[in-house]
Amino acid sequence: MILTAEANGFLSPNGVEIVFLLVGVVTLGAAVITVTTRQLVHAALWLVVALGGLAVEYLLLTAEFIAWVQVLIYVGSVVVLLLFGLMLTRAPIGRSPDADSENRWVALAVALAAAATLVTVVADAFRSTWIDLDRSVQGSPEVTGESLFRHWVLPFEALSVLLLAALVGAITLSRRRGADDAPASPKQER
Amino acid sequence: MNAYAPILVLGGLAAVFAIGSVVAAALIGPSRYNRAKVEAYECGIEPTPQAVGGGRFPIKYYLTAMLFIIFDIEIIFLYPWAVSFDAMGLFGLVEMLLFALTVAVAYAYVWRRGGLEWD
Amino acid sequence: MTSLVQSVDWVAVAPVLVTALTGLAVLVTDLFLAPRHKPLLGWVTIAGLALAALCLIPLTDGDRATFCLTTGDRQCSYVADHFALAVQLLVVGGALLTALLSVTTVRREALPAGEYWFLLLSSAAGAALLPASRDLATLIVALEVASLPAFALVGLRRGDRGSAEAALKFFLSSVVATAVSLLGVSFVYAATGSLHLDTVAGGLDDVDPRLNALAALGVVLTLVGFAFKLAAVPFHFWVPDSYVGAPLPVAAYLSVVGKSAGFSGLALVTVVAFRPYADTWGPALAVLAALTMTTGNVAALRQRPDQPASAVRLLAWSSVGQAGYLLVPLAAAGYHDDPEEMVGATVAYALMYAVVNLGAFAVVALVAENRPGHRLTDHRALFSRNPLAALTMGFFLLCLAGLPPGVIGLFAKVAVFRTAVDSGLGWLAVVMAVNVTIALYYYLKWTALLFATPTTATPTTTPAARATATTAPAAPTPGTATPGAPGQATAPTATGSTVAGSTATAAREPSVPASVPHPLTAAIALAAALGVALSGAPQLILRLASGTLF
């Protein structure tokens, strides 16, 4: 990131920090709108902004691989799934008064308390810590790949079973009594 | 990070073009309305006041999206694997094959269960 | 070149691998199998689980480790020590008994066979991987592999609103718990720079003072996900609804194998990884244990016997109470100088609990063959209808209560109790004693119900039984037998002598399938045999409670 600053010359030495902060503010704003808007589809679209903002933050911290995961998986498919989910249900496309819950103040209190705790603890812990983005690139695909396929073989292979089970479980639950079950049931009853 | 500068420039250009054409059309385009202009373009479907199926999607879309996510996650792991393939050698290949085969069972499952048929 | 990649000890991972591969094989076979052959899948599952249990035998030395780092201090991701082996035995054995229970259910409720067996096996594989994993990444992935299929299993009863709602509740709350756990893991990683449990322990020993609060918060948050699986009290609310909404064998599975995933994960992170923070998690677990056992037992006490599914509800709440006992040695480990010594009591207790609780669920399933309401009142006078089933059920309940002749239940409770006393947790020992007394009441009430006379209440029965007797005639669900005529055979017993009677009963009642649930009988017989064997030779599992397992 420092390289960009030198190459373009229009960012000051701590330009990365300025960009990081600005993107952070945008991400936070989008996240707040996501949970406060009364239009469900708008909420999903603001979620795209929030997730995309996070991707930019990862990129600024040189965590390139995680940034791509964020873009491809979260922005690319989770939000699409979310939109499909919205449209499968009876949720109205426009304003939905049902989206407002009686628990909003409790939720607000819990959210504020959790945020205050986490921000205080994390800010207190890393107040005087600086990451040297120049020297050690930890998040590039090369480094991630080597560590993943060399040191994390077991969780990686377990993950394949997890993915398969997730798909089978989701399909089993969402499928209504399908055509291929119908001939099976009477036979099994006997 | 330098590698992302062209993407940034491209994104900027795209934004400028999109905003520019909308603004320019509003500013300098003649605004004469006729019936044809508010209809669907060329071969589009005629809009109806009530959407088909009450505006709801069939569950098929959801299944397809689920399948997409599973393989999306598989692909994201292929990326660092491909980049560091030379260092891993045969071990990495076997590892990825096991992973891909297990996830491929998901494909076989959906296929045999008729999840890919669109009727 | 070869030194750069991990070497894999296939024998060490065999129990997990066999379970997972059987699951894959079952799923693929199911896709190309004619419907009439589908019952075969259940037997393939049972055979696979039995094979996985056999794979534990060559590992008994407990000195194998694999998936080790090739750099640094060669930390391993998978260690087959005695702790891992004992919990794997519990998981594989529990899954085996569940599979035996499920054979009938899958056929009767027309559950999708391939999916059911695959989900059961993959969940068991995750639960078997969990106690052997020695890094936080594998732990979390294993926890998810163990629980994600369980959500689907809970919701499998199609067209049943309760089942779907239970699955959704279970899913949402569990995912939140795992997310909180992941946040905790990331804090711990930030503070120590490692995910391997031993290195984490080393890193927490001399953590930068500025990161102290972060590490402590990380430690506490990490426990949440595991406490949720164990159904410890602030995280227990999903239990009754999920158990009632799920197919009965799945409820039995959750109460045993699901809990084992919770306590083994808790034991690993607290005793191995977060040892330097014992003064943080020790009191937290002690309070959790006290709350859990009290809430579970008091709620179990308040179950009305004539309500639908009251038997399952009672077992659900009693399983919450039992989870509290499982937590006691872990809490004690936080106060003891040698924390690893304490964990053995939890494992021993869990093994006892697994056998008798699965047995109790099996008898509930047997009773439900003819009276599918899962009411406590359906168990009234079981002795006169099916003496063997009533005797085994009485034995299981006494084991759960910790009274002779359920000797093993008594000894396991004593082992747990001793850890609390030894580590100076006197107040927790008192709370536990009070809870054991509360639990006695409802376990004994149920036992008394089993042996009550089949006619209306007599003055010799307990007050509770008398109270239920008035409601008993209204209890049977439409379409089932009228409440038991004396001597009427309701289900085949282990002896097989009442098979003819059962068939005759079924012929008269169209809603009751004519099939003889041999697998169910086998499950009860197996659990009873194990329970009796353990009561005869309690040292088999109490050995675990003395000395360290790691």
TrEMBL record, chain A:
Organism phylogeny: Bacteria, Bacillati, Actinomycetota, Actinomycetes, Kitasatosporales
GO cellular component, one term: plasma membrane
A UniProt-annotated Pfam family: Oxidored_q3
Regions crossing the membrane: 18-36, 43-61, 67-93, 105-126, 152-173
Chief subcellular location: membrane
UniProt-recorded name of the protein: NADH-quinone oxidoreductase subunit J
InterPro entries cross-referenced by the UniProt entry: NADH_UbQ/plastoQ_OxRdtase_su6, Nuo/plastoQ_OxRdtase_6_NuoJ
Compartments where found: Cell membrane
A GO MF term: quinone binding
Keywords for the protein's UniProt record, in alphabetical order: Cell membrane, Membrane, NAD, Quinone, Transmembrane, Transmembrane helix
Highest taxon above the source species: Bacteria
Broad class of enzyme this protein falls into: translocase
EC number(s) recorded for this UniProt protein: 7.1.1.-
Organism, scientific name: Wenjunlia vitaminophila
Reaction(s) the record says it catalyses: a quinone + NADH + 5 H(+)(in) = a quinol + NAD(+) + 4 H(+)(out)
Membrane topology: Multi-pass membrane protein
Family: Belongs to the complex I subunit 6 family.
Physiological role: NDH-1 shuttles electrons from NADH, via FMN and iron-sulfur (Fe-S) centers, to quinones in the respiratory chain. Couples the redox reaction to proton translocation (for every two electrons transferred, four hydrogen ions are translocated across the cytoplasmic membrane), and thus conserves the redox energy in a proton gradient.
UniProtKB/TrEMBL annotation, chain B:
Keyword GTP-binding among record annotations: no
EC code(s) of this entry: 7.1.1.-
TM region positions: 6-28, 61-82, 88-110
Protein name, UniProt field: NADH-quinone oxidoreductase subunit A
Membrane topology summary: Multi-pass membrane protein
Gene3D superfamilies: NADH:ubiquinone/plastoquinone oxidoreductase, chain 3
Alphabetical keyword list: Cell membrane, Membrane, NAD, Oxidoreductase, Quinone, Translocase, Transmembrane, Transmembrane helix, Transport
Any one Pfam family match given in the protein's UniProt record, by short name: Oxidored_q4
PANTHER family xref list: NADH-QUINONE OXIDOREDUCTASE SUBUNIT A (PTHR11058:SF22), NADH-UBIQUINONE OXIDOREDUCTASE CHAIN 3 (PTHR11058)
Compartment list: Cell membrane; Membrane
Gene Ontology cellular-component annotations: NADH dehydrogenase complex; plasma membrane
An example Gene Ontology molecular-function term: quinone binding
Organism per entry: Wenjunlia vitaminophila (Streptomyces vitaminophilus)
InterPro entries according to UniProt: NAD(P)H_OxRDtase_bac/plastid, NADH_UbQ/plastoQ_OxRdtase_su3, NDAH_ubi_oxred_su3_sf
Function: NDH-1 shuttles electrons from NADH, via FMN and iron-sulfur (Fe-S) centers, to quinones in the respiratory chain. The immediate electron acceptor for the enzyme in this species is believed to be a menaquinone. Couples the redox reaction to proton translocation (for every two electrons transferred, four hydrogen ions are translocated across the cytoplasmic membrane), and thus conserves the redox energy in a proton gradient.
Catalytic activity: a quinone + NADH + 5 H(+)(in) = a quinol + NAD(+) + 4 H(+)(out)
Similarity annotation: Belongs to the complex I subunit 3 family.
Subunit structure: NDH-1 is composed of 14 different subunits. Subunits NuoA, H, J, K, L, M, N constitute the membrane sector of the complex.
Top-level taxon of origin: Bacteria
From TrEMBL, chain C:
Domain NADH:quinone oxidoreductase/Mrp antiporter transmembrane: 133-436
UniProt keyword Aminoacyl-tRNA synthetase, yes or no: no
GO biological process terms on file: ATP synthesis coupled electron transport
Assigned GO CC terms: endomembrane system; plasma membrane
Chief localization: membrane
Quaternary structure and interacting proteins, as annotated: NDH-1 is composed of 14 different subunits. Subunits NuoA, H, J, K, L, M, N constitute the membrane sector of the complex.
Protein name per its UniProtKB record: NADH-quinone oxidoreductase subunit N
Organism: Wenjunlia vitaminophila (Streptomyces vitaminophilus)
